[in-house]
Amino acid sequence: MKKLKLPVIKGKTECWPNKAICPICGKHKVFEPHSMAILSAGACLMNRKEKYGGPSNQMDGFMHISWHGAHDGGIGKDREIGCIVDIVKDVIGGQAELYFCSTQCLRKFFDSCVNELEKKIKKSRNFN
Q: For 13-35, what is each residue's pLDDT tens digit?
């Protein structure tokens, strides 16, 4: 697997990858009519009175993983460290989908994201 450039989705882009090939293994097809694992992120701007909602240019979507170290007398590892790894950032409309050919490739994607978070924690630990 090649190194991921995170975030994988930002701005006007709504899905990843932009070609119908799994972005992790590069071997199998994704998108209809193929089988695939999908990670969806987003929100709907709701009209509560009319009971409907959907994407809106008034929203920017995001999805990230983060580390929040203990502070103010709290107990835990890597105290006073805070790190974020953006996966989806500032997506106009507020919704995004990531496509993978299998749950194995989805797992590799998450592993890569967690590895990136661990690198940021280590860098912050060494900085402090």
A: 999 999 999 999 999 999 999 99
What's the 3-state SS for the chain? CCCCCCCCEEECCCEECCCCECCCCCCCECCCCCCCEEEEEECCEEECCCCEEECEEEEEEEEEEEEECCCCCCCCCCCCCEEEEEEEEEEEECEEEEEECCHHHHHHHHHHHHHHHHHHHHHHHHHC
| Cα angle value 94/100/102 (rounded, 5°) | 140
Q: Which two tokens stand for residue 9?
A: 């989705």
Tokens describing residue 75: 């107990």
